[in-house]
Design brief:
- It is a single chain.
- This protein is of the alpha+beta class and about 120 residues long.
- Helices cover about 55% and strands about 15% of the residues.
- The chain has a 3-stranded antiparallel β-sheet, with helices on one face.
- The relative contact order is 0.20.
Length: about 120
């Protein structure tokens, strides 16, 4: 019962955090566009999905795509993973750390098992 009652607060907290992440990512992209040269380090990573439901995978993919500098390219067949393009992470580990954090926070906001990377 408590989990049901706290869900709206968890969703508001998650959406507030995510809005901040969008602002930070937009700042990074804007700085790259407005300065000479490029600080982009494009890469593709496989994000293993913790929750195998289609709804949470779709929500996670949409949130990743809404964040400037990242794009969900699709679902990797037979692996329960998303293929994600990232523009500004220095290496694969940093990209996956941020994506796992997003996935964990989303699952926590939805009341599902929150898993850390």
């Amino acid at each position: 019962m408590t989990e049901f009652l706290t869900r709206p607060l968890r969703l508001v907290a998650f959406l507030t955090w995510f809005a901040g992440q969008i602002a930070l990512s937009a700042r990074d992209v804007l700085a790259d566009v407005l300065t000479p040269g490029s600080s982009a380090t494009p890469r593709l990573v496989h994000l293993q999905l913790v929750d195998g439901t289609g709804a949470s995978a779709a929500a996670l993919g949409a949130l990743i795509t809404m964040t400037p500098g990242t794009l969900t390219l699709g679902v990797v067949d037979g692996q329960d993973a998303l293929l994600v393009h990232s523009m500004y992470h220095p290496d694969d580990a940093a990209a996956l750390d941020d994506l796992h954090d997003l996935q964990g926070r989303l699952l926590g906001a939805l009341g599902r098992k929150r898993v850390t990377a």
